[in-house]
Design a protein that fits this description.
Helix content: 10-25%
Radius of gyration: 18 Å
Number of strands: 11
CATH superfamily: Pseudouridine synthase
Number of domains: 1
CATH topology: Pseudouridine synthase
Structural class: alpha+beta
Mean pLDDT: 88
CATH class: Alpha Beta
Shape: globular
Order of helices and strands: HEEHEEHEEEEEHEEH
Largest sheet: 11 strands, mixed
């Protein structure tokens, strides 16, 4: 795996933002594997408050707070919708319209650790809404940009699978085959929040993995930046 310092996108007295590689957990789980949370706390020698999570096989931006004030601010922003995340997903090529909204009611199946669509009784599930657009197509696969309006368990994975377009490598939700590193084609690409102290909007991009199917999309190669400083609107990164 890359060095811990190479994963850090932004780091100040209030926040630490990292680009999580696939196949490692954000926090401790039953596997006993070292988590991103633990590694980053050792790296910065500071307690970190976990604000949000992405699934183990997913890569991309994960934000931690360093102070209780920053933590509380981010929790409020998540509740109000001011905390923004944009994902990228690789799915099989299909006849789905190029841009639209998906709305479902999801049930968390704790026994199988996955979500399913509440088709018969919507009241049994929690409403899940996402907006998407297809930004590039290959012969067999498409690249989707996704913004969620709700933060449900496995929301993107289950909603796409329900429409016959499971995420690349996501055998849990119907993909034909998995990836050797157990990653899936889902990446937390962009993240934005209001800085608790400076009161300016922070906007960053986490580069996609540079191997496998990700490297086949020209749009992504053009978007890769040598530094993340450009994405801080204040210029103070």
């Amino acid at each position: 795996m890359e060095s811990i310092s190479s994963l850090v996108i932004f780091n100040d007295h209030h926040y630490l933002l990292a680009n999580k590689p696939p196949a490692i957990p954000v926090q401790e789980d039953q596997s006993g594997d070292v988590s991103l949370h633990r590694m980053l706390q050792a790296y910065c020698k500071h307690d970190l408050y976990l604000i949000h999570r992405i699934d183990r096989p997913v890569s991309g931006a994960v934000l931690f707070a360093k102070t209780t004030e920053a933590q509380q601010s981010l929790v409020k922003q998540i509740e109000s919708g001011d905390f923004k995340k944009t994902y990228l997903a690789i799915v099989p090529k299909s006849e789905i319209v190029s841009e639209g909204t998906m709305e479902d009611f999801l049930v968390h199946d704790t026994r199988h650790h996955k979500s399913r669509i509440a088709e018969k009784d919507a009241h049994a599930g929690k409403k899940a809404v996402l907006d998407y657009k297809i930004i590039e197509s290959l012969d067999r696969y498409q690249l989707m940009e996704i913004n969620t309006r709700s933060g449900r368990f496995h929301q993107i994975r289950s909603q796409l699978a329900a429409r016959g377009i499971p995420i690349f490598g996501d055998v849990k939700y119907g993909a034909r085959r998995g990836n050797p590193d157990r990653s899936i084609g889902l990446h937390a690409w962009k993240i934005a929040w209001l800085h608790q102290s400076q009161k300016n909007k922070m906007t960053f991009q986490a580069n996609v993995p540079q191997d496998g199917l990700w490297s086949k999309f020209a749009t992504l190669q053009e978007s890769i930046k040598p530094t993340f400083k450009d994405y801080n609107e204040s210029g103070d990164a």
